[in-house]
Design brief:
Layout: E1 17-29, E2 34-46, E3 50-54, H1 61-68, E4 77-86, E5 89-90, H2 96-102, E6 107-110, H3 114-117, H4 124-135, H5 140-153, H6 170-182, E7 188-192, H7 200-217, E8 220-225, H8 228-234, E9 237-242, E10 245-251, H9 252-257, H10 262-269, E11 318-320, E12 326-328, H11 335-342
Parallel strand pairs: 3-8, 3-9, 6-7, 7-8
Antiparallel strand pairs: 1-2, 1-4, 4-5, 9-10, 10-12, 11-12
Helix pairs in contact: 4-5, 5-6
Length: 349
């Protein structure tokens, strides 16, 4: 039985605060180099809310999600610092047995690659039923009935519960993974690119289904995606990540309508405008820095059109734009830069 010592009830309002991450640092320590994947991120999420983690491949989004589940592969992954609190549990202080009781019940994850997240020699129905029986006092027949219901929920006929993963397409395997994650009605759901392998029609159905679960059960959701359209449809909060750091954080309206960070601005400018097809896309020049050799100053400086001397001298400074909106950018130390942005030069707001 899990003792009360593993719950951190000191935090005020912990029952509503489903997730709280503070100063999380995760590195992958290799023989010849160290990959600095996550570098001091902090975020929180209340019951029934959704936060989108947005950024390019390699920004550290998936590593952050694995750390929340305490699933960072060790070795080579090492959680170097920070705290992770899920539903009142300190995830970094739990034993393997305690984590087994929490994963799937309190927090679940929809993994990005359905090909590797399913056991190829166990039927999909048994895989869902196994998760149910681990956390709820149900017989095998009751758990298998739940498995059929979950398959129906994600758009797969319940009769296919007796089939094996190789008998499903990539998109259907992804839906099976979603069914497993949702089987025990977790309080926190981590979704790592959950619709990547799905066609547009099924993608919309899955997003609607996740949104319905969030409304009915008060499930909190961390949506990891590079698709700003998915963020606009599903998220209440947005955290934009770059080179392992959060560079802009706020409500959906803050980030989409009052864009502040030059990287966020670049993401929006690189999207096609269906209202004006003559406009050329404006890609962000250059590449994300090597995570084994991150600069000690602003990581985005080499790609930023607003770069100044201050950007090359130290890590970006934190600016509290409003009660809900934060941006990490040294350019805002310059009052002239703020005036230029206020006049509407660039940006999405």
């Amino acid at each position: 039985m899990m003792g009360s010592e593993i719950k951190d009830k000191a935090a005020p309002g912990y029952k509503d605060l489903v997730l709280e991450v503070k100063d999380l640092v995760v590195h992958y320590v290799l023989q010849e180099e160290t990959v600095e994947a996550v570098n001091g991120i902090s975020l929180s999420l209340e019951k029934g809310k959704t936060i989108g983690l947005v950024g390019e491949t390699g920004a550290g989004k998936t590593t952050a999600a694995l750390a929340i589940m305490n699933l960072v592969p060790d070795p080579p992954g090492v959680i170097k610092g920070g705290t992770i609190n899920v539903c009142g549990y300190n995830m970094l202080k739990l034993s393997s047995r305690q984590l087994e009781k929490i994963r799937g019940k309190e927090v679940s994850m929809i993994f990005q690659d359905p090909m590797t997240s399913l056991n190829p020699v166990i039927t999909v129905g048994d895989q869902i039923a196994e998760s149910v029986m681990l956390h709820e006092k149900l017989s095998y027949s009751q758990a298998f009935r739940r498995a059929r219901e979950m398959l129906e929920m994600v758009g797969i006929p319940g009769d296919r519960a007796t089939e094996y993963p190789h008998q499903f397409s990539g998109g259907m395997k992804q839906r099976v993974g979603i069914a497993i994650a949702l089987a025990c009605n977790p309080k926190l759901l981590l979704a790592d690119e959950p619709t990547t392998a799905l066609d547009v029609t099924i993608q919309a159905q899955v997003l609607d289904m996740i949104d319905e679960l969030k409304r009915e059960l008060g499930t909190a959701l961390v949506m990891i995606t590079h698709d700003l359209g998915v963020v606009a449809k599903t998220c209440d909060l947005v955290a934009v990540m770059y080179a392992g750091r959060i560079v802009e954080y706020g409500t959906l309206e803050d980030v989409f309508d009052r864009t502040m960070h030059p990287y966020t601005e670049g993401l929006f400018n690189s999207l096609p405008d269906i209202r004006n097809r003559k406009n050329q896309l404006q890609p962000i020049p250059g590449l994300m820095p090597d995570p084994t050799n991150l600069p000690r100053d602003c990581s985005f400086a080499p790609r930023c059109r607003y770069v100044s001397d201050a950007c090359r001298e130290a890590q970006p400074t934190k600016h509290q734009v409003s009660d809900t909106h934060i941006v990490y950018c040294s350019a805002y130390d310059d009052s002239n830069f703020q005036i230029e942005r206020a006049r509407g030069r660039g940006g999405n707001g």
